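It is worth pausing here to work through a concrete case rather than discussing structure prediction in the abstract. The textbook approach is simple: state the sequence, then state the predicted structure, then interpret. We follow exactly that order.
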Amino acid sequence: MTPPPVALRTTPPPVAAQYPYAPSEVPTPPPYAGATPSPCSVQPPPSGGVAAAIYAAAQAFEGTSTCNVPGTDNGQNACMWAVNQVIYHATGQYVAGGTNYVPTAVAAFDAGGAVRIGQSSTVPGDIVVVTSANGADMHIGICMTYGCTDVLSNSSSRCNFSWHSNPSFSYPGSPYNGGSSAFYHLQ
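Step two, the predicted structure:
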């Protein structure tokens, strides 16, 4: 049985008009510190399908500012907003009606809006969600490589969709150190 589609919202929320979707003029930042190229990262993304469309949309959206997005604490909590913009531009649909709240998106994914997969099964364009060890924080991003060794997400400190990180969003002092990652494939 095919899972139901991601919860629909066929028109962009008003904030989308303030941030036109266009390729960024900001150069692509280097991968996160300590990243090493893997054979998987040089393979082309899958052709056709939702993951390929999300991957292409994420590449085009990279560098987009989230500083002035309402309801995101000046871009500090814009990870879900940014991922929703990417998914909308790839599929014409928002996750859970355009939510800015990661737990609402996860509930929509788990209710059949996406298929939960293991990290080794991920392809560019899949989604990763990390929950902190204490369960108080969540972050979401887009897998940019096979095996999801490189993830693109919103950078809270730069209020910009430009953070290349590992799939656990861990770094010294990160609230996600020791947390758990979940990987999703939208269909």
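Step three, interpretation. The first strand starts at residue 115 and ends at 117. The beta strands are 115-117, 127-131, 138-143, 151-155, 160-165, 180-185.
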